[in-house]
Fold each of these.
Amino acid sequence: MSDRNEILVVSFGTASAESRRLNIDAVEQAISEAAGESWSVRRCFTSQTIINLISKREGIRTDNVADALEKAAAEGVNNLVVQPTHLMKGLEYDKLCSILADYADSFGKVTICDPLLTSEEDLDRVADALAEASASYEDGSTALVFMGHGSEAAANSIYDKMQSVLNSKGKSDYFIGTVEAEPSLDDVIKAVGEGNYKRVVLRPLMLVAGNHAVKDMASADDPDSWFSRFSAEGYETVCIIEGLGQLPDVRDIYADHAYKAITSLRDQL
């Protein structure tokens, strides 16, 4: 087996070419720069639906996890670092670990990195990144609302932890909710209603500003969207369609996770 080193960056994916460029491409570039020239970077997506859409619309073939691992093994990769761009160790992360287990014997060394929100340091750094990105809206009468995806897994508690970190930093005008779990939109509307706010600024708490951001959060045509619900409550509502991957400090966290794994592998060689 060769001494070839590779980082497999695993994302859910997005069918928006612009969002891919601004978020996923940017994260992969940050990881590549941190890893150095002796490590190549390979992309794969976990959503086959998105993979198929990209192929149909753009004629671009994107590997799923199994295909990417098959190719890496066939090309003689020995040391493999897997960096998921997921936010937490939820169901998607568990599925990834299960697939990797089937390929454990295909490589000399395999290690999987932490998702974005794993350690207390991660939470602290992301909270600071959110605050820096939203500072211009802090005027005492604006609520900053971040929309996460949510998960049925126990890892969903990471949203409450992030809220606690923001509160500890004095960001009492910051609120976190989820599309598919708790805190729900109703929970957030209630919490915001307990303050004296005139304006609500909505941002996705997701790597990319994809379908959830455009439809569930920002759609003016859907009466159940976050934009429509807050507007119906009488708030001036502003939507920022930007993924977390557009924040340099967030990209640095992913890059640091990958570099930590690389360093650990080097120590084992």
Amino acid sequence: MQKVVVGLSGGVDSSVTAYLLKEQGYEVIGLFMKNWHDDSVTISKECPWLEDSNDALIVAEKLGIPFQTVDLSAQYKERIVDYMFREYEKGRTPNPDVLCNREIKFDVFMKIAIQLGADYVATGHYCRKGVIKNGDGTETYQLLAGADANKDQSYFLCQLSQEQLSKTLFPIGELQKPEVRKIAAENDLITADKKDSQGLCFIGKVRLPEFLQQKLRPKKGVIVEVPAVLEHYGSDIPKFNSKLEELAYYAEKPHYEPTDGKVVGEHQGAHYFTKGQRKGLDVGGTKEPLFVIETDVDQNIIYTGQGKGHPGLYRRTLFVNNDELHWVRTDMALEMDRTMEVMARIRYRQPLQKATLYRVDAGVYVDFAEKQSAITEGQFVAWYIGEELVGSGVIS
């Protein structure tokens, strides 16, 4: 009998994952990950880990499977939290959920599972795994979108490797969310009606400014409003001698000076803000709401523009450096000077967008057919062919 370790989080998805695997005849072990100790910055009523741990234990008892808790908070702090602080300090916006899957669930946690004799690790992610049988007897693994388009979580797993996928199962990937809740209710699982958790992976809802203030000191600076007429996308677009020149031009971040607009308010630190952000600016009196269009952490200035349609929010092209480029399908990795037509997204839940990848010496350009709102450095771009996620990278 094959042994599977399930990451039991105390939510309905992982509960049903464990139930389905037991029904399929696997030997199932439930493991709860404790990744955070500091409750001072969590909005504890939203997602207290203690309650989640208890729910996971009750589910394990109901299913008659062994259960234990592992404390990974030291690794989580080092690999996720410290990384987040470094990225925010640089004026980038990290995605802890993607990192958490790559660094914790499918690395540290997977190694613990294998030490327990597991053949597989299973999680309650809404995605599917495909297997291609190769002529030489080896297998290639595919990361496929979940059958429930509203819940598809393949984006969060965009950094997984072939080796990690080989040891992973996604039992609820073929199901719709209402079906998952129905299975939980029919089997009297305590988590059947439990709300989905939100916020940082394993931490819960966090007051982000307070969370960041543990390391990043408040620093007063000005908020500048930039008018909608921007030089960067004005009529003075140069004539390009090559496609690469054009891509480099459109991938370049717009650069602003304080003189490009007027001071409309103050903030407590540019590193607390991210592109596309509307909340927390506390500036009134504008015809349309202000959105952050750029942050300058060196000068400690936030540049804003009025309305969702402000041209400063939009860019057509982004770049991924070689050292932050990842192919789930290593056999499909783009060769030098080649292109690939894909569908891509720059954030979870964003509808897939038509784009072309261009491979150059330093990395890959992702050139969208239409301009994208709030392309944010530090976030992940993931690209798909059909329903398969083939690669991803950190936006430079």
Amino acid sequence: MASEATYFVYVLCNNAGTTYTGIALDVNARLESHNAGTGAKFTRGRGPWRVIHTEGPLPHGDALRREMAIKKDRKFKAVLKTSSY
């Protein structure tokens, strides 16, 4: 049985208080790509971004499920934003 790559779920926030949630194998490299304008289309032109939360390592399927749960949980993201300032 091959070992599955481990993913991290991350939440980013910009100076306007906008959040973005995603998964990555390397959160720091992914943050650099978001800030360079080569990350997700949503994050382009809205930076600079900073990491306010990470979870993991998780198997890919679990990371995807957790990403979706965080995206739906407005209260959780609100707590993250207030605790990151």
